[in-house]
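User:
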Amino acid sequence: MGEDFTTTVKGAFDMKADRGSLEVSLAQTGTSSEAAVPLDEIFHGGTVYFRMPEEMNGDTGWRSTSRDKAEVHAVLRAPLNDPEFVLRQVSLAHGFTAAGEEKVNGVPARHYTGKLNHKPLLLRMAKERREKVEEPMVQIGDGFPATADVWVTEDGLITRIVEVCDLGSAKVSSTMNLTDLGKPVTVASPPKGAQAVPASSVGGALLG
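Assistant: Predicted structure:
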């Protein structure tokens, strides 16, 4: 029997200014929140700052890396947990059909459901990982078991995205809720003295 893990990302993001502060945690499903592994992130333009505030070896210093060069290492994971990547990925979905109206995050929204093929699923995926999964994805084509659901408010703003890839033996899902749309947000300032690291060296369950 396999193990189930959940990555949770919360925070405030100013899409227009390209700035945001995120709190990330990784936990095995069914365990307490105290057992979750935490990560702090600050987005500032083209740079992302991150640190593990409870690093076991005592190194809780900030690192920084290029936002645009960060890579994906697992299906339906955003590099550096970047919410704008999720919007880009779902924009590459196709075959959307209307699936009704409902309240999402407290506001009326129109629900659309579509398909994800290899193009969005392989977007910015690291070479070594891409080489393992690209060929079967391309061969299966539109029959690949991956979907995208999007909820759009009456103002034309996305308020929820749900992406699912169900291979039977393994299932991955990603849900992004966008709340308080259009309201001002406060984000942390970039930390001073962060150690710059190559984007190619950044990965793992917490960072995509």
